[in-house]
């Protein structure tokens, strides 16, 4: 696929992040086609680096919903395992500490905010910032497996909190408590 076909598919599937097309195709018709396909901005080569930087900054400023949510005051406790998304840490009741990646933290954070609710793979992929197709990728299954192992390391048996719901997605079972960090 070319970039505009990919963009059209992503928009059709509900992805709403800002897009600036940078292309060697710069006729008026090509620029209009790019914008009609779902691009927020379109620049043709050659371009000035400073102009590109300013346009990207404007796109990000306009999209307040894309600013990462700071979770510094939010810590979750899942069956005795503390999850601090801001510090990318899981810690068990016995002092076991596991570092997790930003993508895994985003995934676990979404599950913690929706305990007991089945979240579809597309929703989980979006939370991690992934652009892969949920129908052809095993990214979420791999991340869930990794999170189960890390939760188990922090407190044996707690990996079972992440449940696969066949044909639908995943859910976090169990009580999730929220506490403020100091």
The chain-level mean pLDDT equals 85
Helical content stands at 25-40%
Radius of gyration: 20 Å
Provide a count of the helices. Answer: 6
**Distance between the terminal alpha carbons, to the nearest Å?**
49 Å
> Can you list the strand order of the major beta sheet?
6-5-4-3-10
Got a strand count?
10
Biggest sheet, in brief? 5 strands, antiparallel
Order of helices and strands: HEHEHEEEEHEHHEEE
Portion of residues in beta strands equals: 15-25%
Oligomer type:
single chain
Please explain how this structure is put together.
The protein is an alpha+beta fold and 182 residues long. It has helices at 3-12, 28-37, 49-62, 102-113, 121-128, 139-154, and strands at 20-23, 41-44, 75-78, 81-84, 89-91, 97-99, 119-120, 162-165, 169-172, 176-179. The chain has six helices and ten strands. It has a five-stranded antiparallel sheet with strand order 6-5-4-3-10, with helices on one face. Strands 7-9-8 form a three-stranded antiparallel sheet. It has a two-stranded parallel ribbon with strand order 1-2. Strand 3 (75-78) and strand 4 form a beta hairpin.
Descriptors:
single chain; 182 residues; alpha+beta; 5-stranded antiparallel beta sheet; 3-stranded antiparallel beta sheet
Summarize the helices and strands and which ones pair or pack.
Elements: H1 3-12, E1 20-23, H2 28-37, E2 41-44, H3 49-62, E3 75-78, E4 81-84, E5 89-91, E6 97-99, H4 102-113, E7 119-120, H5 121-128, H6 139-154, E8 162-165, E9 169-172, E10 176-179
Parallel strand pairs: 1-2
Antiparallel strand pairs: 3-4, 3-10, 4-5, 5-6, 7-9, 8-9
Helix pairs in contact: 4-5, 4-6
């Amino acid at each position: 696929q070319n970039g505009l076909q990919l963009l059209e598919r992503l928009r059709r599937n509900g992805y709403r992040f800002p897009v600036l097309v940078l292309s060697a195709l710069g006729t008026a018709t090509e620029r209009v086609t790019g914008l009609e396909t779902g691009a927020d901005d379109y620049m043709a080569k050659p371009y000035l680096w400073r102009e590109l930087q300013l346009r990207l900054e404007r796109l990000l400023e306009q999209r307040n919903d894309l600013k990462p949510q700071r979770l510094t005051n939010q810590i979750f406790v899942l069956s005795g395992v503390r999850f601090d998304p801001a510090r990318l840490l899981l810690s068990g009741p016995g002092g076991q500490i596991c570092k997790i990646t930003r993508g895994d933290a985003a995934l676990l954070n979404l599950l913690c905010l929706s305990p007991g609710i089945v979240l579809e793979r597309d929703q989980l992929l979006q939370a991690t910032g992934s652009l892969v197709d949920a129908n052809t990728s095993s990214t979420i299954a791999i991340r869930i497996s990794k999170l189960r192992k890390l939760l188990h390391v922090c407190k044996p048996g707690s990996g079972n909190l992440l449940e696969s719901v066949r044909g639908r997605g995943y859910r976090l079972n169990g009580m999730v408590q929220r506490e403020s960090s100091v």
